[in-house]
Amino acid sequence: MKKNMILLLGLLCATLTLANGQFEKAMGENIPAMFAAQNPEELQAVINKLSRIGEAEGDRWEPYYYSAFGYLRMSEMYEKAEDKDKYLDLGMKEVEKGEAVKPNDSELEAMRGYILMIKLTVDPATRGMTYSGLAFTSFQKAIKLNPDNPRAHFLMGRMQYGTAQFMGGSTDEACGSLFKAMVLFEKEDKPENPFAPTWGKRGTEESIKELCEKGE
Fold first, then answer.
1. S-S: 97 plus which of 4, 64, 69, 164, CB 3.0-4.6 Å?
2. Last residue of a domain, one of 47, 76, 103
3. Is the pLDDT of residue 8 over 80?
């Protein structure tokens, strides 16, 4: 009986190790594929795989994070507002799935804010008052949850810049956030979690050059 129990535990451990290896392999393939996808069909195929990975694992937030990012990217490939909204709404559902697994996560909260910010740009005249407040709230929360999250500062800077341009105000605060993000990107260590987000440095560099160094 004892021998059988030991054998059963050994088989269980082997199964878990195999499952972990499969997760790592699948994520290692699909995260780069999400960033490399060039059209909605390619993105949807990757998103479908990521969603299945999330459902199969049950306790990992990362597949839902990248699914949300995929839908956000997809929304930018369409011209019509209804199409953009459709995919942004699907992206938000993926964020919510991730939050169910890992509540109060800075990266997921920043992604929530990112989606809200893009929702605003679909119709800024009618959505500005509502969505700007929601996006700012998410970015502020993301920064509070992790003050060293460079993506939260980068997205906050983009949001602040757009608001300043719309209202005709100073962009100093926005550039301050972007420079802060750049400092944090330079300091960002390789994460212990190999699937944690690392994107945004290039976008921050381009934003600083385009928005904050125009007169230099």
1. 64
2. 103
3. no
